Amino acid sequence: MRRARATLVSVALFAAAAVVALLAGACRPASSPSSPASLSGDWDWYRTMGATPTGGWEGRRRFAFAHFEGPEAEGAWLKRRSGETMETIDSVAASGDSVVLRFAPAEGGQTSAFRGSWKPSAGSRVSPRFDTIAGLLYRGGTPTERVWLVRRSSPLDFEPPIRLWPGPLSDSAYAVTIDPDVPMHARDGTLLTSFVGRPVGKGPFGVVMERTPYLRWDTAAAVFWASRGYIYVKQDVRGRGGSGGVLDMNDHQMEDGYDAVEWAGKLPGSNGKVGMVGRSNPGLYAWYAAIAAPPHLAAIAPQVATADPVRIVPYIDMVFSPTIVPWLCLTKVKETLSDMSDVAEVKAFRHLPVIDADTMAGCPRRQFWLDWFDHQSQDAYWKRLGVENHLDRVKVPVLGIAGWHDDARGTIRNYAVMSRLPHHPFLRVVMDAGAHKGIDYVHGHFGPRARIQPRLLQLRWFDHYLKGIDNGVDREPPLDFFLMGPNVWTKENEWPLARTKWTPFYLHSGGAANGSAGDGTLDTIPPRPGVAAAGAAGTGGGAAADTFTYDPGDPTPYLVDARELELSLNEDYADVERRRDDMLVFTTAPLEDSLRIEGPMTATLWAATDARDTDWHVMILDVHPDGRARRIQDGIVRARFRNGFDRPELLTPGKVEKYDIDVWFTALVLPPGHRLRVTVESAAFPKYDRNLDTGGDNERDTSYVSAHQRVLHDAAHPSHVTLPVIPGRPGHGSRRVDARRGASTSRVTMPAGVSVRCSASRRGSDAIRARKVAFRPVSSRSAIAPHHPRSSVRADPLEPVAYDERNVQARVLDSPGAGTRGVKEVDGSTASDSSHAGSVRIEDGP
């Protein structure tokens, strides 16, 4: 009987298991690629330039979101991260493993489509998860770029453009007329052709002008400015578009800028006031015009303006950058901008001599290219073209706009130099989280207030300086900085920040710091004399030096896709650091507290080599808990220029030398659990050309030797990086915090319009010292990222530092029974004042 019952139970269990298996098989995605998972849902849209791989490292950028409600086009859309439509989806076809999206024809009738196929997730054995569709984007039937659709597991996080500066702006009240071919003649008789948009009305009107190598036709800009009561002029520089002469990069730009401004200031309908704009190289041309000081120039507002030619393009701290080669190809045809996606950059970059890289890439040879290699130190040629040498001649107000992931040296360095002059015009700088072509090129999500509208900032600037409107733009703090990490905007009054605590982080190791698996550590304790134990973090001990071999034939890579014209992105170097032994890696222990770094950074190395010349490159990185190592900034010194760009001096092999390296700047908060990393190597190719180590002509020679490198970090040679640590923790915004301790409450309204609430205890003073508490989002527009459902707030009782943001509104409600001063409200640049010292400081982290 028991055996029969057992048999019946076994049969029942077997039958139940079979039913469950059948149901599970029916519900899960099929393992065959002929019937993959549904399209329904939200997707990230990534793209890479070019239809085929180049053989080098390539950027993959998250540019958009896609949404599908099923296999039909109804309800399907493709939108940029800003929320604007990128393409209108006309049809969706999914058959087998194939997916085809057809888009509405562009203006002019050109058709476009995406053709891709499902790709199962790696490592799925029995039941693959189909969460990626890979394929090509076609324009007019020709494949132009590679695309990946990756299924999202979190809600969409659009980043709509914001109005960073509040207040009224000129409205679009005018009809517009456009003349695309307006001639002028420079002082030497060269024809320069302009595209001019005019408001229909009596005037007089201010003039907004741009001079560009990227062609003058710009109807959208003309309509924007002219409809708001400005004459808009966009001029082809020499050798481009409809202008005569020869493209010369920077020669003639001061003289031509002067002549163009004076001509524009006298156009019919002009009020005699000209403002200049320009993005990238055109931004540099605005600076050149300001240096020339034409009487009709009233203000400039350049965006991501290129810096001195020896600082960023074509040289970076007097080290040539091959990444300029695709730019040469962009301008190879006079009347058009050429497609750079098929530039043979990898072949060109690796070719020796460097001077032939232009023709190896299929670009035209220009005289200024040869001039660059005739002047390989900062001689009179570069000093004449350098902006920094002439900033004392700029007499008009300047608004500079750039991003922390851009090659923004021009914006930051020009402000730093000018602000120290005894008599300088009003200067303002806005720094967002973006790259050279915008925030879409940067990895990560920076919250709902990161994407600004530069043209609206320029409009408010020119409303004041060209139209004479008293809108207060000249009475506000000069610096608007986006602080990455907490993702909030702050207002500052100087650069570097006056409250900076310059903090050295020293290199330590047991002599085996090669690669991320090595024993290199980083901390604020300097090396101690006579200690040579294994260098554990915090001991201050370790070996005296680390060594590696630099081979110019296999240089340490820098992750850059030069066709993108981006040089300063936050790529992940974890894999590079694992694979290479020609880079020294020094990493802190996981941070126990937030670390705010905001300002210029430097490195000081003591090093020796057996070569006559070599390079020393330093990179600073943010190491995430999952192992990603995101670049923050980097810098380089070519050894022959260790004593100045105008004083090349070769090395004595084996001799220890001190090197000071500019590692640029940032504004970033590293949260608890992250680690700070510094790497030292002798190449970052192809951002910087390879040092051939011979001491000869690095750009014309074809032979090289390997160099044996030694980096010292003992007590006599304490190699380190110096970071601009800002005490205190700025608010993270969009959060509500409750801390039920003490008798008083501090309430801060963040820019996103959501409250933060903490209770404070008193210890013999009015300082607010919040305890560690949990917080909750109190708005559907919370700035908390989807993967951070909870965070915390801490306040350091030893170092109360005010949160510096003009938009903060702080209200301190003191308990009447606590002997305090009643209600105090603050609406200014700090969250505390002299009658209520201290501040609440807010951070992510446990």
Could you explain the architecture of this structure?
This protein has 846 residues and is of the alpha+beta class. The protein contains 12 helices and 40 strands. Helix content is 14%, strand content 32%. A hairpin with a 2-residue loop joins strand 16 and strand 17. Helix 3 packs across helix 4. The N terminus and C terminus are likely disordered.
Task: Describe the main β-sheet briefly.
Answer: 10 strands, mixed
Percent in helix:
10-25%
What is the distance, rounded to the nearest whole angstrom, between the alpha carbons of the first and last residues? 61 Å
Spatial extent as radius of gyration? 29 Å
The DSSP helix count reads 12
**What is the fold named in CATH at topology level of the largest domain?**
Rossmann fold
CATH class of the largest domain: Alpha Beta
